Automatic annotation (TrEMBL):
It is found in: Membrane. This is Cytochrome P450. Pathway: Secondary metabolite biosynthesis; terpenoid biosynthesis. The keyword Transferase does not apply. Heme binds at C450.
Length: 517
């Protein structure tokens, strides 16, 4: 009776939106199969609408900038949804991506120095080294041929995994080494790439609300224990090594001082040696940061870099202009400051992160009743104009990052086009987007923004710097053939080869300066 009453009096019931969906799945099955569905609903119902989640429960979509700002800034009220947290927690333990409230603030304070400007400056050498390694591997594949087709996404996955392992935890993977033995961590992560059926995904979500269902793991749930055990075993070993290195560094009789280690793990270990208890973490919590950052940083980085190359492959003029700028730098190993001094490189990255948003969606749940402010009023199902959205505790909210990036009211009629030059003078409306970087929601905003935004942007700059100076990059399939996956992270795939999963075929040619022909 209580749930029927809650349904009938739900404050979202008057919002516009699609007809109620399946009795059990609501619109859930449609949403996890169709990457464009919410965009079409948005075009029909406007900036704020209601749709149905599992068990036909009403969920809110809002792309209103004031509402989004309110949600993202008030992290104590709006938290990650239990199914999202539960899957992550079972995998990574209590790392930064999982914890909420005061514990999140505490962990974030301890981890922030590892992602500061000086720390990123030190890590740039690793970004460049790995980019050069990838460039040389591609050159070797090209051999004496005029051109070579590659799956750039598969290579970028390996390269970004190496970067995060080394820059994050001083861990050497050799994932880019084609003839090397298989690596234990790569194998652990691969165990997690499980293709779930929509039914299995729905069941996993239902497990968050109905604990007894957790006795029956399926899909990802089945793969998690083995992968988690492996990651924590490796994490424990890395922590022991990092502690030994820090101790050797402190010991005046320990012989030659170890080179100062800047990786994330070393920063945490050093912080644990300070007297201030508020910046100390237990060993278990330190170890939990390793899988937390691997999972948060690996797929996102490879996906973002893939879309960057895709954007350039479709825009030869922009690629040439970028190459001209990059060739003005007379070194193969630019510093972070040299990379940051290249304006066109910066525009290209911002524009690719806008036009091809990697993390397209995230979700929050209201932990208490609240009222969302709106920057523009909306008209409800009965024709009444409303200027706020009241919410009940437990309401799930879809944060449509991609929709904000492609909003014609914000970016103008050419919002869907890739035009780096727009960053010379962005529209006033774009300055109202809540943001942690570049007037975009790529790295979200507020206290839970991506801790590694600086790290990721410099990594992408290093990669483009190295690859665009060496290769001319073309699309291997017609433009409309590359579409995103329907997941929250939009990986690239080929429309006519969906069975192959995520991939990005590209054609490479060695770049030869005109005067060397
Ligand atoms: C271009 C690549 C990346 C993109 C687009 C990206 C995007 C994001 C987004 C949108 C969030 C917020 C998710 C949410 O709260 O719902 C996030 C959080 C996070 N990201 Fe990234 N990320 C990237 C790379 C990385 C890397 C390389 C690392 C680690 C080295 C990393 C570590 C994290 C962590 C730890 C959080 C949680 C922060 C917190 O809750 O305080 N990310 N990222």
């Amino acid at each position: 009776a209580r749930s029927i009453h809650a349904h009938l009096t739900c404050p979202l019931r008057n919002l516009p939106g699609p007809d109620r969906g399946d009795r059990v799945f609501g619109h859930f099955k449609l949403l996890i199969n169709d990457y464009d569905l919410t965009n079409r609903w948005r075009a029909t119902f406007g900036t704020n609408f209601v749709y149905r989640g599992l068990f036909n429960k009403r969920e809110l979509y809002t792309a209103d900038l004031s509402a989004l700002k309110h949600i993202l800034v008030n992290d104590m009220i709006y938290q990650k949804p239990p199914p999202m947290r539960q899957t992550m927690e079972s995998l990574v333990g209590n790392g930064l991506t999982v914890v909420e409230g005061e514990e999140h603030r505490r962990q974030r304070k301890i981890l922030n120095p590892a992602f500061s400007i000086p720390a990123t400056r030190d890590l740039t050498e690793i970004f460049t080294q790995k980019s050069v390694q990838l460039r040389d591997l591609w050159l070797r594949q090209l051999g004496h041929a005029d051109s070579q087709r590659i799956d750039a996404f598969a290579w970028l996955r390996k390269m970004t995994l190496e970067v995060i392992a080394e820059a994050g935890f001083n861990y050497h993977l050799n994932a880019l080494e084609p003839s090397g033995p298989p690596n234990e961590l790569v194998q652990a992560l691969e165990k997690l790439i499980v293709r779930e059926t929509p039914r299995e995904t729905a069941f996993r979500f239902a497990q968050a609300s109905i604990p007894v269902l957790r006795l029956f793991p399926t899909g990802v749930g089945k793969a998690v224990p083995a992968a988690r055990a492996e990651m924590f075993r490796i994490g424990g070993r890395l922590l022991a090594e990092s502690k030994a290195a820090a101790a050797a560094d402190l010991n005046p009789f320990g012989g030659k001082k170890a080179a100062r280690r800047r990786d994330l793990l070393s920063v945490m270990v050093q912080s644990n040696m300070l007297d201030d208890e508020s910046v100390r973490m237990s060993d278990a919590d330190v170890i939990a940061q390793i899988p937390a950052n691997f999972t948060a940083g690996h797929d996102t980085s490879s996906t973002s870099s893939a879309w960057l190359l895709h954007a350039l492959s479709l825009n030869r003029a922009c690629q040439t202009k970028l190459r001209q700028e990059l060739l003005t730098v007379h070194t193969d190993n630019p510093s972070m400051d040299e990379l940051n001094s290249l304006p066109y490189l910066d525009w290209v990255i911002r524009e690719a992160m806008r036009a091809y948003t990697p993390v397209a969606t995230t979700f929050r749940v209201a932990m208490q009743d609240d009222v969302l402010p709106l920057s523009k009023p909306y008209v409800d199902r009965h024709g009444v104009v409303r200027d706020t959205i009241p919410l009940r505790k437990g309401t799930l909210i879809r944060v449509p990052i991609e929709a904000v990036h492609l909003d014609k009211d914000i970016w103008g009629p050419d919002a869907h086009e890739f035009k780096p030059e727009r960053w010379e003078c962005i529209p006033e409306a774009a300055k109202n987007i809540p943001s942690a970087w570049g007037n975009l929601l790529t790295f979200l905003a507020g206290p839970r923004n991506c801790i590694a935004s600086r790290f990721s942007v410099v990594e992408m700059k290093s990669l483009l710097f190295t690859l665009v100076r060496a290769f001319e990059i073309d699309a291997a399939v017609p433009a409309g053939e590359i579409i995103p996956t329907a997941s929250a992270l939009h990986r690239p795939r080929v429309r006519s080869e969906l069975g192959k999963g995520a991939q990005l075929p590209l054609v490479l040619r060695r770049y030869v300066p005109v005067d060397q022909y």
